[in-house]
Amino acid sequence: MEILVNDIRYGIRSLLKHKGFTAVAVITLALGIGANTAIFTVIDAVMLRALPVKDPQQLVFLSNPDRHGVNGGQETGDRNLFSYHEFEWLRDHNEVFSEVFAVQSALSTQPVLVEGADQNGEAERTRISAVSGGYFSGLGVNTILGRPFTAEIDKASGANPVAVISYDYWKNRFAVDRAIVGRRIRVRQTSFEVIGVAQPGFSGETVGSAPDLWVPLTMETEVSKEVLAPPNNVRNKYMWLQVMARLKPGVTLEQANASVNLTLQQMLQSETSQLSTDERAGHLNQRIALTRGSRGASTLRTSFGEPLLILMGLVALVLLIACANVANLFLARAATRQKEIAVRVALGAGRGRLTQQLLTESLLLAMLAGVLGLLLAQWADALLVRLASTGSNPIPLDLHLDARILGFTIAVSLLTGVLFGLAPAMRASRVDLNALLKEGAKGTTGSSSQAGRLPAAKILVVGQVALSFVLLIVMGLFLRSFQKLTQTRMGYDSEHLLQFSIAPPKGYQGAAVNQLHKRLLERIRAIPGVRSASLSLSGLFSGTDLGMNISINGSTPAPGQQISAFNDYVGPNYFSTADIPIFLGREIGPEDEGNAPLVGVINQTMARTYFGDANPIGRQIKASAPFGNLAFTVVGIVADSKHDDLRTPSGSWFYTPYFHVSRHPNFSWATNEVRISGNTAAVATAIRAAAKDTSPLIEMPEIHTINELVGQTITTERLITTLSSFFGMLALLLACIGLYGAMSYNVVGRTNEIGIRMALGAQPRNIFRLIARQGMTLVLIGIVVGLSAALALTRLISSLLYGVSATDSTTFVIVAVLLAAVALLACYLPARRATKVDPLVALRYE
After folding, report:
1. Contacts for 306-310: CB closer than 8 Å, 24+ residues apart
2. What is the DSSP string of 288-304?
3. Within 10 Å of residue 136's Cβ, how many Cβ atoms?
């Protein structure tokens, strides 16, 4: 311990003595360590951390924890989501779980007013989660004020308008008011009593989706019009629930899986009386795949899991480049310390003792870099969340510093210290005492004979260039992929197209709903700067597409085949407003409203898929879904258009009139599309005023341009492109600094040789070529090595690319030329310096 303390003291003095060297090395390593810590912190929060609940290892998912939203129709194979009546059956016929509970699979964002406080203000949009009565007890979550829900709230629909709010919402919205219990808040037109505040740190069962308040599932019809009643047709279920459970003590996952699937089959068998013999086999082909629930569900794992792992690999390469850079610095510094080391050897220091002292300095440097890297990581994480967030609200991730993050940073710092310090330390400890003393007798520094001839330094430069080439290739592929993605044709003009959603206030039903939307459209069309306006149910890039099973008169599908298409209800002149080309027939107009014969318009893909080369105009199509049945006549074909995703093909779509009696009464909201020619902000303000004039009770809409909505769907691609570009350029900078440092040291070490060459007649251009050629040789070797590695590794990112091959030759050529050009610049300055050597000075020195 005394030796260790002395080594640490000496190491600190040595680092403080060479402040420039220490600063450069610490900053270089801190960039690499900070990047690794930042990415690991996000990976830990998204993919590794257990829920802050009681005994999370006992939790299981009956549903797919990474699926969210609503599924309509019938699922086969492993179940993703469940309908409310299915959850009730599984809860009531359970034998292996101590608690079965359900939660709405996607948060509902609704305007909320605090009664008695917000009477003169606008409602604040709040994230709401609907849960069953066993939710809090099943998770083992307590309240710090009031009480949580109990199983009693599941017994009657619409009879328990109560709410539990999150700790963060209590703190931010109510300033930790302990009198909150008993106060009432209004969600849309329903008043809820706050009965409790959840414990600190708990933000729900889904990572990346933190609700502000929880309401009972039995009150869901008052919040977002979800379906609680069993379907009339078991093949048209409305599935929207995540179902979780807590294992009974002693029950294994395998035992529970067998039991719950037996329960599911009993329920399915009870439903087969509604089905034909041919339909029963498909209906019974459903099963539950129990999965561990300790890490909760996630809205982020599917979209960000693979990109985060790839980014972790990229920052690991950046750290290796930083280590190589600092290792080169240590090799150069060790050469200048050979006389010091010779004295230590002469006094009896062994090789192991010298290695220990030099490695202690490396570890001290790494730990200093780790502290700085930890600070950089905290800033980088905040930036990372902003890049990954869609819209103005950041993703609710818990990124606080804890023991796991601290332990990771310490481990990376120690490993880094060993990586860049061990080889230089061992090399420096191998000294030829007699040779050094002879050189010392001649008055030389003892380093000139070795300077510029360090094979380890050259190997490190080659490694840096190779790693940089790989990173730059990844950067180039992502840049080209993102460019092609943003240039994807959407099938309509997205410029100057606004969109917003309107939900009628409570009390509007039937014809009153249509009249409300029509009055609003009339007011919007009268706004200066508005060219045209229409509406639809789902809208563009809203994430609420509706799928329906279809059958076509005169067409018989293969046995067991179920054909389907997406559906949207659209208003008059919808396609003209959105600027979607009409290829055949006509679009939906005012004459198709009310009780008129139901007509529909299909897109190119649907026409090609189900009609081939035949003309579909006039053909009859029937569609069915949990929310109702449609039978319409095709009157038009329109161009394919992007609805929710730029990557995937459009798929089959059909459109029916919004103002027709066939629209299900639950579908009372509308998404308005407005084509403008004026100032966006001014038109948006006028639209809000028009909505208020139409009905004072209408919730003020959030108005977006279609381009904004499209941008929110490519957040993952933008994130990985931005970060890979940053890491690629950082790697290029570090590699060039390393090459510059190695070549500069090479020139210093070969001063005598260069002087002799010039004294014997060598011209400056010959010296320049000699030094530059040696540097570029290392670069070319590094590019060849990097090319081989890149060809093997880029296949790992092929699934994230769009319109670009993982071996895209254009990217490889551009990156190779860019790296060579920048490396040539890094070699230019040392080579130029070599041409300035004075032969007389060099020979006198020799």
Report:
1. 306/799, 306/800, 307/716, 307/719, 307/720, 307/800, 308/39, 308/42, 308/43, 308/46, 308/47, 309/43, 310/474, 310/720, 310/796, 310/797, 310/800
2. ---EE-TT-EESSHHHH
3. 25
d(CA 470, CA 792): 10
In three-state form (DSSP H/G/I as H, E/B as E, the rest C), the secondary structure along 568-596 is EEECCCHHHHHCCCEEEECCCCHHHCECC
Q: Could you tell me the pLDDT band of residue 647, with boundaries at 50, 70 and 90?
A: confident
CA distance 736 to 468: 9
Phi, psi angle pair for 809, to nearest 5°: -65, -35
Element of type H or E holding 60: strand 59-61
Alpha carbon distance 26, 370 (integer Å) = 9
**Could you give the count of Cα atoms lying within 13 Å of 72 in the half-sphere of its Cβ?**
20
Q: Could you tell me which residue, 275 or 599, shows the higher pLDDT? A: 599
Phi and psi for 796 in degrees, rounded to 5?
A: -70, -20
For the stretch 496-533, pLDDT in tens is: 999 999 888 877 878 889 999 999 999 999 999 999 99
More confident position, 17 or 288: 288
- pLDDT over 90 (residue 165): yes
Burial tier of 379 (Cβ tally within 10 Å: 0-12, 13-18, 19+): exposed
Q: CA 559 to CA 556: how far, in whole Å?
A: 9
Residue 58 gets which letter from DSSP?
G
CB 156 within 8 A of CB 218: yes
CB atoms within 10 A of CB 374: 22
Q: What angle, 0 to 180 degrees and rounded to 10, lies between the N-to-C axes of helices 253-271 and 277-284?
A: 160
CB 63 within 8 A of CB 232: no
User: Mind spelling out the 3-state secondary structure of 398-414?
Assistant: CCCCCHHHHHHHHHHHH
Lowest mean pLDDT segment, chosen from 217-221, 351-355, 600-604, 666-670: 351-355
Measured torsion, CA atoms of residues 366, 368, 371, 374, in degrees rounded to the nearest 10? -40
* Residue with token string 């929060």: 45
Tokens 């792992």 label which residue? 309
* Residues written for the chain: 846
Q: List the Cα angle 485/488/493 in 5-degree steps.
A: 135
Helix (H) or strand (E) holding 162: strand 162-165
Phi first, then psi, for residue 298 (nearest 5°) are -155, 140
Q: Check: CB of residue 62 under 8 Å from CB of residue 290.
A: yes
pLDDT digits 0-9 by tens, 40-92: 998 998 888 899 999 999 999 999 999 888 777 778 899 999 999 999 999 99
What is the residue-averaged pLDDT of the chain?
A: 86
Weakest mean pLDDT among 250-254, 458-462, 743-747: 743-747
Task: Answer for the pair 428, 450: CB distance below 8 angstroms, yes or no.
Answer: no
Amino acid at 645: D
pTM of the model: 0.81
CA distance 722 to 397: 20
**Residue 455 CB-density burial (10 A; 0-12 exposed, 13-18 middle, 19+ buried):** exposed
Which ranges of 448-526 does DSSP label H, i.e. alpha helix? 455-486, 511-525
Pairing type for strands 97-104 and 653-657 reads unpaired
Q: What is the C-alpha separation between 726 and 730, in angstroms, rounded?
A: 6
The Cα 419–Cα 509 span in angstroms is 71
Q: Under DSSP, is residue 654 helix (H, G, I), strand (E, B) or coil?
A: strand
